[in-house]
């Protein structure tokens, strides 16, 4: 029984990642892009944790890897594309729908290519922009596109799509003792705090009040763990 629970813990993080991606789509459909973006933020937190937790517990599996890819295409492919569609591309009708659909298509190709080349790929770089990073950047640009020239979002949209399937080498930061997307997550947190102190009339999803302390505790645990490893060498 304990073994089953232990094996299920990383997959639960991945499934919650997918669930928050779905909720983000629902918020976007209601025009609440701030909460939609925050839910993608929570998904990024969970995505950066599930693999490391699996390695810490020594329960890595092919099921977990496949499940992670399926969650990523929803949370970092479909959800950001829906944000971009409802907030910008919907004005172009069916053409806007088709354009928005390109993001998850390119993201799915990027994930499939990564999965079949994972063993061959270097630990020091990714080939092409990871869908998590691409989805995070698109989400931020969509959230603040009203404060930028309107041309920025469509240009960034196509550039990110191209970079995901390109052969550009992107530093992986896997040697850094923090979750791999910590920089982007930190940017999200900064934006969340900014929005909070603007005192606009909306509320964060209650999940955020659980997710942020959990993520900070996880980062602290990672730092302590890495420090102990260095001291024992």
Automatic annotation (TrEMBL):
The keyword Transmembrane helix applies. It comes from Neobacillus rhizophilus. The keyword Membrane applies. The chain crosses the membrane at residues 12-30, 92-111, 123-145, 151-168, 180-197, 203-224. This is CDP-diacylglycerol--serine O-phosphatidyltransferase. One of its GO terms (molecular function) is CDP-diacylglycerol-serine O-phosphatidyltransferase activity. It is found in: Endomembrane system. GO terms for cellular component: endomembrane system; membrane. Pfam families: CDP-OH_P_transf. GO terms for biological process: phospholipid biosynthetic process.
């Amino acid at each position: 029984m304990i073994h089953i629970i232990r094996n299920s813990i990383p997959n639960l993080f991945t499934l919650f990642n997918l669930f928050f991606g779905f909720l983000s789509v629902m918020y976007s459909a209601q025009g609440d892009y701030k909460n939609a973006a925050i839910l993608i933020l929570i998904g990024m937190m969970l995505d950066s944790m599930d693999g490391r937790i699996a390695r810490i517990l020594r329960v890595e599996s092919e099921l977990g890897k496949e499940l992670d890819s399926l969650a990523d295409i929803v949370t970092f492919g479909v959800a950001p594309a829906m944000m971009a569609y409802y907030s910008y591309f919907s004005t172009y009708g069916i053409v806007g729908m088709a354009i928005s659909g390109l993001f998850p298509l390119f993201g799915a190709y990027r994930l499939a290519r990564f999965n079949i080349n994972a063993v061959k790929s270097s630990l020091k770089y990714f080939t092409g922009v990871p869908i998590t990073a691409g989805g995070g950047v698109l989400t931020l640009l969509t959230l603040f596109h009203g404060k930028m020239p309107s041309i920025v979002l469509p240009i960034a949209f196509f550039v990110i799509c191209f970079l995901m399937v390109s052969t550009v080498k992107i530093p992986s930061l896997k040697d850094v003792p923090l979750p791999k997307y910590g920089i982007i997550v930190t940017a999200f947190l900064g934006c969340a705090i900014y929005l909070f102190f603007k005192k606009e009339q909306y509320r964060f999803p209650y999940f955020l009040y659980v997710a942020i302390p959990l993520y900070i505790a996880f980062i602290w645990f990672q730092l302590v763990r890495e420090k102990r490893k260095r001291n024992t060498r």
